[in-house]
UniProtKB/TrEMBL annotation:
PANTHER family linked: 5-KETO-D-GLUCONATE 5-REDUCTASE (PTHR43669), ALCOHOL DEHYDROGENASE, PUTATIVE (AFU_ORTHOLOGUE AFUA_3G03445)-RELATED (PTHR43669:SF3)
The family this protein is said to belong to: Belongs to the short-chain dehydrogenases/reductases (SDR) family.
Pfam families in the record: adh_short (PF00106)
Higher taxonomy: Bacteria, Bacillati, Bacillota, Bacilli, Lactobacillales
Protein name (database record): Uncharacterized protein
GO molecular function: oxidoreductase activity
Domain of life the protein comes from: Bacteria
Alphabetically ordered keywords of this record: Oxidoreductase
Family annotation (InterPro entries): NAD(P)-bd_dom_sf (IPR036291), SDR_fam (IPR002347)
Keyword Acetylation: no
Length: 135
């Protein structure tokens, strides 16, 4: 049985390194990004890889995140490992942080983490699995 890992933010940085390592170790890998160019580049790096599923959507959209998890489960039937690796830092001092910036940080770093993790947890709770969060 193929082991499956879901990694958010897997098109660059730490997430991309995780995708590369897991594919080398034979895992099926599902990942996502809000940036179409980043998802295109990852697909081009692995043009014949059948164990890679890359989705493009705004992680702030809770329904899209839940649909992503559903598509992964429809495709492979399970998720054994999950890394929430998405996050943003709008590096501003308190006096320069606008309410809009604050809401964006909360939407990505907390609400999206909750939405996708809850969807994965609902699947994992009756099985064994690993959930890791980074930011």
């Amino acid at each position: 049985m193929t082991k499956v890992v879901l990694i958010t933010g897997g098109t660059r940085g730490i997430g991309r390194a995780l995708v590369d390592v897991y594919l080398r170790h034979g895992f099926a890998v599902a990942t996502c990004s809000s940036n179409p160019e980043n998802t295109r580049q990852l697909r081009e790096a692995y043009p014949d890889e059948k164990k890679l599923y890359v989705a493009t959507f705004d992680i702030q959209d809770g329904q899209a995140g839940r649909q992503f998890v559903k598509k992964v489960l429809d495709r492979w039937g399970t998720i054994q490992q999950y890394y929430f690796n998405s996050g943003i830092c709008l590096d501003k001092s308190f006096s320069k942080m606008t309410s809009k910036h604050w809401q964006e940080v909360i939407a990505v770093n907390l609400t999206a983490a909750f939405d996708i993790t809850q969807a994965v947890f609902e699947h994992m709770k009756a099985r064994e699995g690993v959930i890791l969060m980074s930011g």
